[in-house]
Each structure stands twice: as C-alpha cells, then as structure tokens.
Amino acid sequence: MDRLKVYFNNTTDELVQDDVRIPVIRKWGHPWFHLNKREQATVFLTETELRRLHRRFGHPAVMRLAKLLNNAGHDNFEEKTLEEITRFCHHCQLNSSAPRRFKFTLKDNRYFNYEILVDVMYLGSKPVLHVVDSSTAFQGAKFLSAMSAKETWQALRTLWIDTYQGPPDILTHDAGTNFASAEFRAEAKIMGVTCKQVPTEAHWSVGKTERYHAPLRRAWDILHAELAGTMPDEAILQMAVKAVNDTAGPDGLVPTLLVFGAYPRMTTESPPSPSMVKRSEAIQKATKALRKLTAERQVADALNTRNGPDTADVLALPLQSEVLSSSHTTDQIISGLILMRRTRRLRR
C-alpha cells in the first residue's frame, strides 16, 4: 500500500488512490473487495480446483490441460501437480494408453470455417437460410425460394461454400427435413462435409445461431422500414448481414477483423486498406485473443459446474443410435428386498 500510495478509508469502506475509489466490503472482521472478470481468471488454482478441471475436461493429457490453462491466463501452477493428479487418477490408470511417439498435431478448431451452424429463420413470411461460423461468429443469410433439400444446399453453396474459403469440416444443424434428408447429406458427403444433427428440441441445441437471429432480425427491420421501396429485399438482407458482421461483440472482437484481418472502410477519411502482411498479423493477434477468451470461459464454466460424468459424446449422438443403458429393479425375495442391476442394449 505504501508503494502504490493507497490507503483504506474505514469510514466509507473504500480503497483510495488519488481519484480512484474502490468499494470494500467488511465481512468476518476483514475488509474484502471484488475482482473483475479478467482478474478472476488469473487467481491461484488450488489442487482441488485442478482435480475438478481434470475431471470436467474428460481426464485430458497433462500437456493438453496445461496449454488450456496457459491460454486462460493461469501461469502460476506446476505441471508436476497435474502429473501427480493424472498418475493417481483411477480412470487414467485403467484407460490410459502406452507411451507413443509424436506423429502429428491435431487440428485446432478455433479458426474460420472449421464448423458452421445453419438454421432456417423467417423474416416476415419468407424463409431465410442463416449461417454462423462457430469460432468467429461471422455470418451470412440468403432467402430460400422453397423449403426443399436441393434448394437449401444450392443456397448454402451460393452463400458460403462458393463465396468464402470452401466447404467446412463440420456442419451443425437442427433436426429438420431439409437438413436431415438423404439428398442433403449425400451432397455434403461428396464435398467432405460432416453433418452433425442436434436432437429434436434439445435445450443445448444450436444456441449461437438462435441467439444471432435477434440482431439480424433487428437490423433487417430497421433497414426494411427505411429502404423497402428503393431496393429489393435481397439487397436489404445483405446490408443487414454486413451491419451485424461489422459490429463488435461483447469482448470487443469484430467478426470481419477475425476473418479478413482488417476493419471495413466507411468514409474517405478512413485509413487505407492494409497490405497482406498487415492483414496476416492482425488475424494472428485477433485469433490469439479469441483463443484466450475461449480458454478463460472454458475454465470458468468447468470450475462453476457441479461434478459429473462427461456427457459430450452422448449428447452428440444422432437419433436412433444404439446406447448402453443401466436400470435398477427391485425384486421381492424371501429374506426381504434386494436391489439388482440389469444392463442391456437398447435402441433409441
């Protein structure tokens, strides 16, 4: 406090440094003050919290968990602690594989066009194909002339695949006749796209696309009310999509900057378009910030979630998949009640 020239005002319960005042809460005979979200992500992790993270992330390798914690800003832990947790973990002892040589690096899914989320929304009475990139939140939209699988695939090719980088690795969609049809999946398989279907009315369905319906609809309503008689609806929809893509998100990241590495020029006084080297550096810096924010959120969610099994693989199963189910039955015997477990294979 002497070095920072800070003093505690016990009459107003504040920390005072020149003109800066931080409110303090008195509890249990000691003064406390709250950290902001960025400081909360960099506090010291106890061994109990490290064990909880080890369980919540599905018992990952030591280097993989250490890399995630470093991206989230936790650089105050020792890898020896993670190694001890992994060595004494019951599930890691039973299911760990033998040591292997390093052969290749798995793909990082935090880049543009790795996974896209598609859904159909309605603007007025017209169906619209809405596409959102999973990592950068860059999006696109196009009117559909018919709710058929062929028309949906042609609209997706025109809107996304033939316009930007190409076909994505994963295409996530809700359960619908136009996306789940054999024709749509066959066309996607030819181009090397893996279709991932979300079960019907699942509470954890494609939430990002559903959330981005509201900003796009709001931008469409404003532009359509002002420009309805001067230009077609397709041009107004493209203007609405452009306005949403050029808007900064809650973390200050602009989707256009993440994808193209430059801010859009608005007027003649705007700075000139940067060179390819500057664009590449901007994309690398923005992607690094995006990965850090994603890692911070993953660690915070894992620490605040109650302990339980990893259900990510189960939730990703499509409909009519075979699952292994365990049920409990109670039978009456001579000596009294006994609890028995029966395991069988079911088809859902």
Automatic annotation (TrEMBL):
Residues 95-272 form the Integrase catalytic domain. GO terms for cellular component: nucleus. It comes from the Eukaryota. This is Integrase catalytic domain-containing protein. Keywords: RNA-binding. GO terms for molecular function: RNA binding. InterPro entries: Integrase_cat-core (IPR001584), RNaseH-like_sf (IPR012337), RNaseH_sf (IPR036397). GO terms for biological process: DNA integration. PROSITE patterns: INTEGRASE (PS50994). Gene3D superfamilies: Ribonuclease H-like superfamily/Ribonuclease H (3.30.420.10).
